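Checklist before submission:
- one chain only
- standard amino acids only
- sequence pasted in full

Submission:
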Amino acid sequence: MAIIPWRPLFDLDRFWEDEDWLLPVIPKEKLFPAMDLYETDKAVIAEVNAPGIDPKQIEVSVENGMLRVAGKGEKKSEEKKKNYWRREISRSSFERIVRLPVAVDENKVKATYEKGILKIEMPKKAVSKSKAKKIKINVVK
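Returned file contents:
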């Protein structure tokens, strides 16, 4: 018979390492829409998967190097059988906040919504190259 060391907190550590321990019933895609964030020569671009969400219900803001995308969705369905109606309403909301990899011009951000994808284009700020300035050293006697 092999001797197995007693590790009372081993299962507890595994519990916290598992990503799905918080809400195993609800898929992550329902809580947080998938987002691609990439950089080109002139801009940082975010593409958010938001099918079925009315673009009027989505808020996009860029402030202090952070991109915030929030939205609300409502899905209604009706079913008629025999002499009764069945109506189901599903409401959901989401919010994603992401730190941007470079400084962007917050006043020139553009967002477009096409075929369930929200595309946010954030032009990079022009980096001004400063010249080296020689500093005179005052000698105190």
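Reviewer check: Residues 28-123 form a domain with the Immunoglobulin-like fold (CATH 2.60.40.790).
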